[in-house]
Amino acid sequence: MKAHFRNKRPSVILELPPDAARAYLLKSESYFAAELPRYFDFGPMLTRISTLLSKTPLADLTVKNLQNCKGINHTILHNKDGQFAWRPQELIHPFLYVELVHRLTEPKSWALIQQRFADFGQDRRFKCTSLPLVSNSSVSDKAAQILRWREGHELASLELSLQFDYMLKTDITDCYGSLCTRAFAPALHGLELQEGNDRRGGRKLLGNALGSLVRSAHGNRTHGLPHDSNLSHLLAELVLGYGDLLISQDLNRAGLSEFKIIRYRDDYRVFAHSRQDCELIARTICNVLRDFGLKLNPGKTGITDEVIAAAIKHDKRCSVKIGFQSTRLIDDLLGIYDLALQHPNSGSVIRFLMEFQKKIIRKKGAQEPVAPMVAILTDIAIRNPRTYPIYAAVLSRMFSWVSRKVASALLVQIQAKFVSVPHTGHLDLWLQRIAIPNGLPFTYSEPLCRTVSDPEFHVWNNDWLQEQYRHLVKASTYVDLSELEPVVQLGEVQLFHYGS
């Protein structure tokens, strides 16, 4: 790992002054955290809208009530397991997103948010490791977040095995899809202040304003928070952090003092001296979350006295044994394939595909038949949708080893294999990334793909926005193909650029 990353500590967003927090949230990487091809850059578009909204209220730019509009955000349905599980990845309408960012980062509002999170963090038995981070180095904010998860979640769990004999692991079912937006007000202002203001018409409370804006983006539904932006992560942390405070108070009233809870967003690890204490804490978490419209996932809830084994994911422990010792690329892929069968959609599968990309990135040709390797790689991707970006990157290098005619035929076969897999919009975006610069014919169903070929296309519903401002969100404002290369390079999909 590069020295500069070791020496520069990432900053939690709450450590930033309001203007820096605003700039952070207006970055393209913060706006949409899911991996997209690099030619999507939403930052300049968001900056222009921010300049406009700094001078003109959003209400003066509309032609109809937002809450009467449907489908304002653009949603990519992302397959989770290669079968029927899926979740929405949402690109919040840029005008609504910027309005939310402005409301949050006004100096008085930001000071309130910082104070509330300070209140949530007073009980040292609770540790939240998932607040959005600024990397302060050349690696991405997302990479810094992953390292924080490993250090604050995995390694801290190992350390706590010295103090506690039992660990409870659990997470929240459909956290973002179920979260009640009316929870923002009590989370920010406390229940008593919020209820008092509600009786007097508390529309001016920041928590109520945030809830109203989020509901506007969701067809006026009271439950649900858009996925895949750091803004949404911060709003979720606000409610879950408030939940930590309430859980702490309830456990104090129950007389339980010796325990530790590590939370990474909706993922809880509870450490205690007995199974009974773990069960009491689990019931307390359930009771608190119920008021936010949330519940624990019974299929992912369990108590164990094998804390070391439970602290590190099984796929990671197994993958330590895998190496790239073979001189044949197909043997390397078969090793990854076996891992993917044992631990589908795991982070270890992605990590080894990234290592494989490093191994082949400078190869100008292959001594082995390409089609069998593409077949193995495609089967891995079908069963492991998290691999789509690195899958496309490896494909792009393999396509460079064959003629355009052969590559075109392989791409047709690949798309045919995915026909039976539902919700593959994310895959469409990455296959388009390798099809365009290589001149390969390509069909897609994901609307965001059209923005790459049609600079005038509007992917968001703008019916509510005055026509004179709609050009600010057309495709040409966030798509730039000028530096597109035929082969996907390491920096486009590799979170960590150390080693090669």
- Placed side by side, the strands forming the largest sheet appear as 4-7-8-6-9
Q: What overall form do the CA principal axes indicate?
A: globular
Task: Tell me the CATH topology of the domain at 123-178 and 223-312.
Answer: Alpha-Beta Plaits
Number of contiguous helices: 23
Strand content is 5-15%
CATH class of the domain at 123-178 and 223-312, named Alpha Beta
Termini separation comes to 11 Å
Overall strand count? 9
Question: How much helix is in the residues?
Answer: 40-55%
For the residues shown, what is the average pLDDT?
91
Find the structural class using helix and strand composition: alpha+beta
Computed over alpha carbons, the radius of gyration is: 24 Å
Query: What's the CATH H-level homologous superfamily of the domain at 123-178 and 223-312?
Result: Reverse transcriptase/Diguanylate cyclase domain
